[in-house]
Amino acid sequence: MRILGENDRLPQGSTVATIGMFDGVHRGHVLLIDFLKQQAAASGKQSLVITFLRHPRQVLHPDNDFHLIMPLEDRLSQLEALAPDLLLPLDFTSELSQLDSYQFIEMLRDRWGVDALVAGYNHRFGHSRGEKFEDYRRNGERLGVRLIKAPEYLGQYAPVSSTIIRNLIAAGKVADALHCMGRPHVITGKVVHGFHNGRGLGFPTANVGEVDPQLLLPHNGAYAVLAHVNGKVLQGMANIGKRPTLDNGDQLSIEVNLFDFDEDIYGAPIKLEFISFLRLEFKMCGVEELKQQLTLDRDNAKRLLHEYLTTKK
Fold it and tell me: Which residues make Cβ contacts (< 8 Å) with residue 74, sequence separation at least 6?
């Protein structure tokens, strides 16, 4: 597979392309790219996936409280793993947003040799959002570019879209998001110093800092997680919230208790995979009730992680 730059140009009529943000690279995206590769192979051309570097909402509505499912490097890695012939990361700009569908298809044809464009089942492109697939097809015919509609994903976890997945994660429904994407929701950061209350409770925690503020966090609460740190994959439970029982103020924290692990990992990069929701965060009557709840959380997390890992094999 070859990664293109925006200034690269391809021979006329040499590619079959699809274009989109592909945030989350979910099961619907996998179906779309598999279909693209089939169409390209059948016509003897190269498959081209075009993905935006920035989400259109981040460009057109920069003050909007919008968060991405995954960082760019993870998205590109997941798209590469789907093995199209060509991958083009394209910057979405305000100038690009002003192109209508005719101009947009013309640009794809002239710059990157697009002979056929595979449109996702409900994908829209071009300045006029009121246009439908038949409008795209007519514009394509005028330009000598075939428009092909990809099949709708109708798998076990349909319907699926990046918007649906964002809503699931924001609601704490990380197990449902996992099924829609085919992999867990991930956040990455660095282990930093926190409040140091966990060890006194018998549940030492690693405080996760330096998390990309553009990325979506699950709803405040406790979760069963898999943690990747120092080359190991560890089971644990994470809490996202403000620790109301311990009166630690309004600062949001992400803390993870790693099971059967007691090494110094301060400063180490850490990746958390969110497997299942345990409970919402709430203020308890005191430290003893908190200990009892954490013990229950740990038992539930171990059970859920065992089920996930057993099923995954």
Answer: 186
Q: Cα separation of 257 and 299, whole Å?
A: 12
**Among candidate residues 183, 310, 205, the one with its CA nearest the CA of residue 259:** 205
| Domain span holding position 258 | 184-312
| 6 and 91 both lie in a single domain | yes
pLDDT, tens only, 181-202 = 999 999 999 999 866 555 556 7
- Residue 64 sits at φ, ψ, to 5 deg, of -75, 145
Q: Which helix (H) or strand (E) holds 189?
A: strand 185-192
Between CA 68 and CA 215 the distance in angstroms is 5
Q: What is the pLDDT of residue 70?
A: 97
Is residue 78 domain-shared with residue 134, that is, in the same domain? Answer: yes
